[in-house]
Amino acid sequence: MDTVYQPGQEMTVHWIVKPGTDPAAKPAQVELTVRLTGPYGDVSELKSAAGGTARPALGEVTFEAQPVRPSGAAGERPVSVIPIARDAPPGSYNLIFAVREDGGVVGGASVVRVAPKA
Fold it and tell me: Which of 18, 80, 94, 113 holds its CA 20 to 30 A away from the CA of 106?
């Protein structure tokens, strides 16, 4: 992600919906979650922490969006909003997202930067 966030901003995550192939099927019960965890001094520290070999130097903080539970309606565009605290320490944050459906979980991660407070 190329956007650098400032403390006090909100990060918006737009989820991509792929409709099912069976129009008669009942919509699945899906829960979408996303959070930022950090800060880390740089991406290599973040990756080490994700692998379980390091911790944030300043103590870990987490900012998370409320879980989103799409209804399955046609044209639905689910959005998650992560409020970044006004006193958020600067650094690299791990953006962790997950889709929970029918007892299974699929997820991933990316890197988000938070700038020093202006």
Answer: 113
For 23, the token pair is: 């129009």
- Tell how strand 30-40 and strand 4-5 pair up: unpaired
| Single pTM value for the model | 0.85
Query: C-alpha dihedral over 44, 48, 50, 56, to 10 degrees?
Result: -80
Element (H or E) spanning 47, and its range? helix 43-50
Would you state the pLDDT for residue 88?
Answer: 94
pLDDT of res. 81? 98
DSSP letter at 8 equals: T
Contacts of 112 (CB under 8 A, 6+ apart): 1, 3, 5, 11, 36, 92, 93, 94, 95
